[in-house]
Design brief:
Length: 534
Amino acid sequence: MTDYPQKLSGDEIRRKFLEFYRKRGHQIVTSASLIPEDPTVLLTIAGMLTFKPIFLGQRIPEFPRAASSQKCIRTNDIENVGRTKRHHTFFEMLGNFSFGDYFKEQAISWGWEVSTELFGLPKERLIVSVFDLDEETYAIWRDKIGVPEKRIKRMGTNDNFWNSGVTGPCGPCSEIYYDFHPELGDDIDLEDDSRFIEFYNLVFMESNRDANGNLTPLASKNIDTGMGLERMAQILQQVPNNYETDLILPIIKKVGDIARADYSKSDEKTKISLKIISDHMRAIVHMIADHIYASNAGRGYVLRRLIRRVVRHGRLIGIDEEFTTKLAENVIILGESAYPHLRERESAIKTELQQEESCFLKTLARGEKILAGVINKLKHQGKTIISGDETFKLYDTYGFPKELTQEIAEEEGLTIDSDGFTIEMQKQIKRAQSSHKTIDLTVKHPLDNKSSDHIHSTEFLGYTQTVASVRVELLLVEGIAKEEAEAGMEVQVVLNKTPFYAESGGQIGDKGSLFSNDLFIKIRDVKKESDFYV
């Protein structure tokens, strides 16, 4: 691999990128929380999410240009984490944005300057892709920038038309790829990630896609770009994959120390576990730092799933003790220069991890033993599918997650009956509804301030969920906090989170039900008092 003028650390790459655009009139914007303002999105998945209302013309921008280093979480490719060179659940996206200011030619010119001059990448190692119907962009790369036609690839809608989801701002894009092996010639297949890596995506945001797939022009044409920090670090630090950069490798080494496993000498299976643990720990620490807590629904479920994957892969490589808080310290050290709030939230991060890990270790030991018996029995019988009944029993009786059963089954060459699991889940809900006594939750008295001073405000989930796993924070009988209530009594409850809409602005509150293994509660009304849903 050719030496470059600079071999930069991850922190240096971030700083130089932002400084480049600051000098060109961009407002440097602090990374937004992983909890997005947009209620249609569970987690912050891209740098542009902060600016989505501006792109849609719903908010007037305070400045015409911006740049940021945005922390992001994506779990749609979680099965590829640790197995490919570039997939992560947590990553940082460096980006520059224009709100009706500059457009294609300027964005392309600066993108090329950042790549070839700021970071010194050899021009002969770069390939660009363009949307196959975007002749203007093709011409800019060829005629203005001087990229040879053989190194400009036309791509279809699936590859080079970017959108933030099913609906929302979108437009054609142009990507810059790095070629690790130019000696292989001009037969360019950008799907070959052993040779090529896409590190900078320039999106020309000009349309809005509605729920029916129809495109309408945005009020102004905008620029949204994204450069993967981990990917640029891999290129500049000349390492085989993103995991061996200074952004992640120190965590891998710490995991290895705990497991007594040398990453460089480990077999592939152990390396995958080391990488999965290190990747997930970055996501976990940043999520808790942004006030996301483990639960069985929404963002909390994503966090809980990541923690459980970390614990289980720790077990796979021989770690039989609690270890996540040790790794959290390592993640904080690596990230606190860019994200000082990590250190400020250290206590909350480690407390949440310790509680979740301790609880799950008990579940894991019990569930793994039972599942191993199920798998051995199936293999002895020559069968390859774990029934929905067995999967649900592990979940319902032993608290063993369906996703974990599926993951272990796949490692053993088996599958699970997901449809059968769903049927068993529905049966359980019906049993709960029909066999338990009902408590009327009609709101009759206002929430007493004294009774609420030890609980947090209720998180409203109703924009994205109609069903959720929740915790009862407070039980009130005739306005007085109580530990219990008898069947048939009219009471109030305050939950930590709720999908129910509260009575407000002339609209009536939602009705529904609240149930657990031994209780079914009928909710007749919901009101909001201060920050609590009652």
